[in-house]
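Lab manual, section 2.4: Encoding a predicted structure.

Procedure: take the sequence of the chain (334 residues), apply the prediction step described in section 2.3, and record the output as C-alpha coordinates. A sample record is shown.
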Amino acid sequence: MRTLTHTVTAAEQGQPLRTLVPKVFGLSTHAFRRLKVQEGIRVNGTPRHVSYRVSAGEQVAIHLPSETADNHSSDVPGSPPARSPASLIAYMDEDLIIVRKPAPLATLPGRHGQGDSLREYLADALGLSRDTPYHPVNRLDKGTSGLLCIARHEHAQYVLTRDLHSDRFVREYLAVTDGIPDRPHAVISLPIGREGTGVRRIIRPDGKPAVTTYTVLYAEPSSGHALVRLALQTGRTHQIRVHLASLGCPVAGDYLYGTEHPALSGRFALHSACLQCRQPCSGTLLTFLDPLPAQLASLFHHPEEAVSRSSQAFSAFEKFTAGLLPAQIDHSQM
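Recorded output:
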Protein backbone atom coordinates (compact mmCIF):
# COMPACT_ATOMS: atom_id res chain seq x y z
CA MET A 1 0.00 0.00 0.00
CA ARG A 2 1.31 3.46 -0.94
CA THR A 3 0.78 6.19 1.69
CA LEU A 4 0.99 9.91 0.85
CA THR A 5 0.89 12.65 3.47
CA HIS A 6 0.26 16.40 3.56
CA THR A 7 0.49 18.89 6.45
CA VAL A 8 -2.38 21.38 6.40
CA THR A 9 -1.28 25.01 5.99
CA ALA A 10 -2.89 28.06 7.54
CA ALA A 11 -4.32 29.00 4.12
CA GLU A 12 -6.02 25.59 3.90
CA GLN A 13 -7.59 25.67 7.36
CA GLY A 14 -11.34 25.06 7.35
CA GLN A 15 -11.46 23.29 4.00
CA PRO A 16 -13.43 20.03 3.87
CA LEU A 17 -11.49 16.92 2.94
CA ARG A 18 -13.61 16.54 -0.19
CA THR A 19 -12.03 19.80 -1.44
CA LEU A 20 -8.55 19.53 0.00
CA VAL A 21 -7.62 15.93 -0.78
CA PRO A 22 -8.18 15.84 -4.57
CA LYS A 23 -6.41 19.21 -4.91
CA VAL A 24 -3.24 18.61 -2.88
CA PHE A 25 -2.73 14.99 -3.99
CA GLY A 26 -3.81 15.45 -7.63
CA LEU A 27 -6.35 12.64 -7.49
CA SER A 28 -8.69 11.63 -10.25
CA THR A 29 -12.41 11.54 -9.47
CA HIS A 30 -12.31 7.74 -9.61
CA ALA A 31 -9.37 7.48 -7.19
CA PHE A 32 -11.02 9.87 -4.72
CA ARG A 33 -14.26 7.91 -4.77
CA ARG A 34 -12.35 4.70 -4.09
CA LEU A 35 -10.63 6.29 -1.09
CA LYS A 36 -14.03 7.34 0.30
CA VAL A 37 -15.44 3.83 0.02
CA GLN A 38 -12.35 2.18 1.50
CA GLU A 39 -11.94 4.76 4.31
CA GLY A 40 -8.51 5.54 2.91
CA ILE A 41 -8.38 9.15 4.18
CA ARG A 42 -6.98 9.81 7.65
CA VAL A 43 -6.28 12.92 9.70
CA ASN A 44 -3.62 12.51 12.39
CA GLY A 45 -4.03 8.76 12.02
CA THR A 46 -7.83 8.71 12.41
CA PRO A 47 -10.20 7.85 9.52
CA ARG A 48 -12.33 10.89 8.68
CA HIS A 49 -15.41 11.52 6.56
CA VAL A 50 -14.89 13.75 3.53
CA SER A 51 -17.02 16.46 5.16
CA TYR A 52 -14.44 16.87 7.95
CA ARG A 53 -12.92 20.38 7.99
CA VAL A 54 -9.19 20.45 8.60
CA SER A 55 -7.14 22.64 10.91
CA ALA A 56 -3.67 24.06 10.30
CA GLY A 57 -0.90 21.67 11.31
CA GLU A 58 -2.98 18.51 10.99
CA GLN A 59 -1.51 15.73 8.92
CA VAL A 60 -3.71 14.31 6.18
CA ALA A 61 -2.77 10.87 4.85
CA ILE A 62 -4.23 8.87 2.01
CA HIS A 63 -3.68 5.16 1.56
CA LEU A 64 -3.64 4.09 -2.08
CA PRO A 65 -4.68 0.47 -2.64
CA SER A 66 -1.93 -1.96 -3.59
CA GLU A 67 -2.02 -3.58 -7.02
CA THR A 68 0.45 -6.28 -6.06
CA ALA A 69 -0.12 -9.85 -7.15
CA ASP A 70 0.95 -12.28 -4.43
CA ASN A 71 1.62 -15.23 -6.68
CA HIS A 72 4.85 -15.28 -8.66
CA SER A 73 5.10 -16.43 -12.23
CA SER A 74 5.85 -20.06 -12.87
CA ASP A 75 7.90 -21.48 -15.69
CA VAL A 76 5.96 -21.15 -18.91
CA PRO A 77 6.89 -23.51 -21.78
CA GLY A 78 8.37 -21.49 -24.63
CA SER A 79 8.62 -18.31 -22.58
CA PRO A 80 11.75 -16.15 -22.98
CA PRO A 81 14.36 -16.17 -20.21
CA ALA A 82 13.95 -13.46 -17.60
CA ARG A 83 15.78 -10.26 -18.49
CA SER A 84 18.35 -8.99 -16.06
CA PRO A 85 16.87 -6.03 -14.12
CA ALA A 86 20.22 -4.26 -14.46
CA SER A 87 19.87 -4.11 -18.25
CA LEU A 88 16.09 -3.84 -18.56
CA ILE A 89 15.34 -1.44 -15.71
CA ALA A 90 16.91 2.02 -15.67
CA TYR A 91 15.15 3.23 -12.53
CA MET A 92 12.49 2.13 -10.06
CA ASP A 93 10.79 3.66 -7.05
CA GLU A 94 7.45 3.16 -5.28
CA ASP A 95 5.50 4.88 -8.05
CA LEU A 96 7.15 4.31 -11.41
CA ILE A 97 9.58 2.22 -13.42
CA ILE A 98 11.73 3.43 -16.30
CA VAL A 99 12.68 0.57 -18.61
CA ARG A 100 15.00 0.19 -21.56
CA LYS A 101 12.76 -1.62 -24.01
CA PRO A 102 14.60 -3.88 -26.44
CA ALA A 103 13.45 -4.29 -30.04
CA PRO A 104 11.68 -6.09 -31.48
CA LEU A 105 9.30 -6.29 -28.53
CA ALA A 106 5.71 -5.03 -28.27
CA THR A 107 4.82 -2.65 -25.44
CA LEU A 108 1.41 -4.29 -24.96
CA PRO A 109 0.18 -7.87 -25.42
CA GLY A 110 -1.56 -8.68 -28.70
CA ARG A 111 -5.34 -8.83 -28.99
CA HIS A 112 -5.40 -12.58 -28.55
CA GLY A 113 -2.53 -12.75 -26.06
CA GLN A 114 -0.21 -14.30 -28.62
CA GLY A 115 3.51 -13.75 -28.15
CA ASP A 116 5.30 -12.03 -25.32
CA SER A 117 5.36 -8.29 -24.73
CA LEU A 118 7.21 -5.93 -22.42
CA ARG A 119 4.59 -6.74 -19.79
CA GLU A 120 5.72 -10.37 -19.60
CA TYR A 121 9.43 -9.53 -19.83
CA LEU A 122 9.14 -7.08 -16.94
CA ALA A 123 7.11 -9.46 -14.79
CA ASP A 124 9.65 -12.24 -15.40
CA ALA A 125 12.56 -9.93 -14.56
CA LEU A 126 10.96 -9.00 -11.23
CA GLY A 127 9.75 -12.49 -10.42
CA LEU A 128 6.09 -11.43 -10.50
CA SER A 129 2.96 -12.96 -11.93
CA ARG A 130 2.38 -12.12 -15.56
CA ASP A 131 -1.10 -10.96 -14.50
CA THR A 132 0.32 -8.19 -12.30
CA PRO A 133 -1.30 -4.82 -13.22
CA TYR A 134 0.73 -3.01 -15.86
CA HIS A 135 0.38 0.71 -16.63
CA PRO A 136 2.64 1.94 -19.49
CA VAL A 137 2.46 5.74 -19.70
CA ASN A 138 4.06 6.30 -23.09
CA ARG A 139 4.16 3.70 -25.85
CA LEU A 140 6.90 2.54 -28.21
CA ASP A 141 6.31 0.60 -31.41
CA LYS A 142 7.50 -3.00 -31.45
CA GLY A 143 10.45 -2.07 -33.66
CA THR A 144 11.54 0.90 -31.51
CA SER A 145 13.97 0.51 -28.62
CA GLY A 146 14.74 2.69 -25.64
CA LEU A 147 13.27 4.43 -22.62
CA LEU A 148 9.67 3.92 -21.58
CA CYS A 149 7.80 4.91 -18.41
CA ILE A 150 5.54 2.51 -16.50
CA ALA A 151 3.35 3.59 -13.58
CA ARG A 152 3.20 1.22 -10.62
CA HIS A 153 -0.32 2.10 -9.51
CA GLU A 154 -3.44 3.84 -10.79
CA HIS A 155 -2.75 7.22 -9.17
CA ALA A 156 0.76 7.42 -10.64
CA GLN A 157 -0.68 6.54 -14.05
CA TYR A 158 -3.25 9.34 -13.76
CA VAL A 159 -0.65 11.98 -12.87
CA LEU A 160 1.93 10.87 -15.46
CA THR A 161 -0.65 10.53 -18.24
CA ARG A 162 -1.92 14.01 -17.43
CA ASP A 163 1.65 15.31 -17.86
CA LEU A 164 2.39 13.25 -20.97
CA HIS A 165 1.82 15.86 -23.69
CA SER A 166 3.21 18.80 -21.75
CA ASP A 167 6.63 20.22 -20.93
CA ARG A 168 6.56 18.14 -17.73
CA PHE A 169 7.10 14.97 -19.76
CA VAL A 170 9.89 15.26 -22.37
CA ARG A 171 10.68 12.50 -24.87
CA GLU A 172 13.45 12.73 -27.45
CA TYR A 173 14.49 10.15 -30.01
CA LEU A 174 17.38 9.20 -32.24
CA ALA A 175 16.76 7.87 -35.74
CA VAL A 176 19.01 6.68 -38.53
CA THR A 177 17.44 7.64 -41.84
CA ASP A 178 17.72 6.29 -45.35
CA GLY A 179 18.71 9.48 -47.12
CA ILE A 180 19.80 12.83 -45.70
CA PRO A 181 17.21 15.58 -45.00
CA ASP A 182 17.68 18.73 -47.08
CA ARG A 183 17.44 21.02 -44.06
CA PRO A 184 19.66 20.45 -41.00
CA HIS A 185 16.92 21.58 -38.63
CA ALA A 186 13.18 21.98 -39.12
CA VAL A 187 9.74 21.63 -37.61
CA ILE A 188 7.44 19.22 -39.45
CA SER A 189 3.80 20.17 -38.98
CA LEU A 190 1.71 17.80 -41.09
CA PRO A 191 -1.60 16.17 -40.08
CA ILE A 192 -1.63 12.39 -39.80
CA GLY A 193 -4.55 10.02 -40.37
CA ARG A 194 -5.23 6.37 -40.96
CA GLU A 195 -4.88 4.90 -44.45
CA GLY A 196 -7.96 2.76 -44.98
CA THR A 197 -8.61 0.20 -42.25
CA GLY A 198 -5.03 -1.02 -41.77
CA VAL A 199 -2.30 0.04 -39.37
CA ARG A 200 -0.53 2.31 -41.84
CA ARG A 201 -0.78 6.10 -41.35
CA ILE A 202 -0.42 8.81 -43.97
CA ILE A 203 -0.29 12.58 -44.29
CA ARG A 204 -3.84 13.76 -45.01
CA PRO A 205 -5.62 17.13 -44.75
CA ASP A 206 -8.35 15.74 -42.50
CA GLY A 207 -5.85 14.02 -40.18
CA LYS A 208 -5.03 14.97 -36.60
CA PRO A 209 -2.47 17.76 -36.05
CA ALA A 210 1.05 16.38 -35.65
CA VAL A 211 4.24 18.34 -34.95
CA THR A 212 7.78 16.96 -34.87
CA THR A 213 11.03 18.92 -34.46
CA TYR A 214 14.21 17.41 -35.85
CA THR A 215 17.93 18.20 -36.01
CA VAL A 216 20.48 16.37 -38.15
CA LEU A 217 23.37 15.40 -35.86
CA TYR A 218 25.50 13.55 -38.40
CA ALA A 219 25.18 13.19 -42.16
CA GLU A 220 27.25 10.56 -43.98
CA PRO A 221 26.87 10.71 -47.77
CA SER A 222 29.09 7.63 -48.25
CA SER A 223 26.53 5.38 -46.49
CA GLY A 224 23.49 7.43 -47.46
CA HIS A 225 22.41 7.70 -43.83
CA ALA A 226 21.84 10.52 -41.36
CA LEU A 227 21.58 10.49 -37.57
CA VAL A 228 18.62 12.63 -36.56
CA ARG A 229 17.47 13.88 -33.16
CA LEU A 230 13.70 14.24 -32.84
CA ALA A 231 11.29 15.73 -30.31
CA LEU A 232 7.53 15.27 -30.31
CA GLN A 233 5.06 18.07 -29.64
CA THR A 234 2.15 15.69 -30.27
CA GLY A 235 1.84 11.94 -29.92
CA ARG A 236 0.23 10.46 -33.02
CA THR A 237 0.61 6.80 -33.95
CA HIS A 238 3.79 6.29 -36.04
CA GLN A 239 4.34 10.07 -36.01
CA ILE A 240 8.13 10.10 -36.37
CA ARG A 241 8.08 7.36 -38.98
CA VAL A 242 5.40 9.09 -41.08
CA HIS A 243 6.98 12.54 -40.82
CA LEU A 244 10.48 11.36 -41.79
CA ALA A 245 9.05 9.38 -44.69
CA SER A 246 7.29 12.56 -45.86
CA LEU A 247 10.75 14.14 -46.23
CA GLY A 248 11.85 11.28 -48.46
CA CYS A 249 14.11 10.05 -45.64
CA PRO A 250 12.34 7.15 -43.92
CA VAL A 251 13.71 5.49 -40.81
CA ALA A 252 16.25 2.86 -41.88
CA GLY A 253 14.76 -0.62 -41.79
CA ASP A 254 11.17 0.64 -41.54
CA TYR A 255 9.29 -2.09 -43.37
CA LEU A 256 6.02 -0.08 -43.29
CA TYR A 257 7.16 3.33 -44.54
CA GLY A 258 10.54 2.57 -46.10
CA THR A 259 12.67 -0.50 -46.81
CA GLU A 260 13.70 -3.40 -44.59
CA HIS A 261 17.38 -3.63 -43.72
CA PRO A 262 19.17 -6.99 -43.33
CA ALA A 263 21.13 -5.73 -40.31
CA LEU A 264 17.93 -4.80 -38.45
CA SER A 265 16.02 -8.03 -38.09
CA GLY A 266 12.50 -7.33 -36.85
CA ARG A 267 13.19 -3.72 -35.93
CA PHE A 268 14.00 -0.34 -37.44
CA ALA A 269 16.51 2.39 -36.56
CA LEU A 270 14.47 4.40 -34.07
CA HIS A 271 15.50 4.73 -30.42
CA SER A 272 13.96 6.52 -27.42
CA ALA A 273 17.13 8.18 -26.10
CA CYS A 274 15.93 10.71 -23.54
CA LEU A 275 13.00 10.75 -21.12
CA GLN A 276 12.40 13.47 -18.56
CA CYS A 277 9.39 13.51 -16.25
CA ARG A 278 8.20 14.60 -12.82
CA GLN A 279 7.99 12.01 -10.07
CA PRO A 280 4.20 11.64 -9.75
CA CYS A 281 4.01 11.99 -5.95
CA SER A 282 6.96 14.22 -5.02
CA GLY A 283 7.24 16.33 -8.18
CA THR A 284 11.00 15.74 -8.35
CA LEU A 285 12.50 16.13 -11.83
CA LEU A 286 13.75 12.79 -13.19
CA THR A 287 15.95 12.57 -16.28
CA PHE A 288 17.12 9.43 -18.08
CA LEU A 289 19.42 8.90 -21.06
CA ASP A 290 19.96 5.76 -23.13
CA PRO A 291 22.81 5.91 -25.67
CA LEU A 292 22.58 5.08 -29.37
CA PRO A 293 22.58 1.26 -29.66
CA ALA A 294 25.63 -0.24 -31.36
CA GLN A 295 23.32 -2.01 -33.81
CA LEU A 296 22.12 1.36 -35.12
CA ALA A 297 25.55 2.99 -35.06
CA SER A 298 26.88 0.12 -37.20
CA LEU A 299 24.76 1.33 -40.13
CA PHE A 300 27.32 4.12 -40.63
CA HIS A 301 30.76 3.67 -42.17
CA HIS A 302 32.09 5.62 -39.18
CA PRO A 303 29.96 4.40 -36.25
CA GLU A 304 32.21 6.04 -33.67
CA GLU A 305 31.34 9.45 -35.13
CA ALA A 306 27.61 8.75 -34.85
CA VAL A 307 28.01 7.69 -31.22
CA SER A 308 30.07 10.77 -30.41
CA ARG A 309 27.58 13.15 -32.04
CA SER A 310 24.64 11.58 -30.23
CA SER A 311 26.43 11.80 -26.86
CA GLN A 312 27.25 15.47 -27.42
CA ALA A 313 23.65 16.21 -28.37
CA PHE A 314 22.31 15.08 -25.00
CA SER A 315 25.18 16.35 -22.84
CA ALA A 316 22.98 19.19 -21.53
CA PHE A 317 20.73 16.60 -19.86
CA GLU A 318 23.59 14.84 -18.05
CA LYS A 319 23.63 17.32 -15.17
CA PHE A 320 20.08 16.26 -14.31
CA THR A 321 20.98 12.56 -14.11
CA ALA A 322 23.96 12.85 -11.77
CA GLY A 323 21.93 12.57 -8.55
CA LEU A 324 19.78 9.62 -9.57
CA LEU A 325 20.16 6.38 -7.70
CA PRO A 326 20.50 3.14 -9.65
CA ALA A 327 17.40 1.03 -10.10
CA GLN A 328 15.76 0.18 -6.80
CA ILE A 329 14.53 -3.40 -7.19
CA ASP A 330 11.54 -4.11 -4.97
CA HIS A 331 9.98 -7.49 -5.63
CA SER A 332 6.88 -6.68 -3.58
CA GLN A 333 5.07 -4.89 -6.39
CA MET A 334 5.19 -3.66 -9.96
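Check your result against the sample. Residues 22 and 29 are 8 Å apart (CA to CA).
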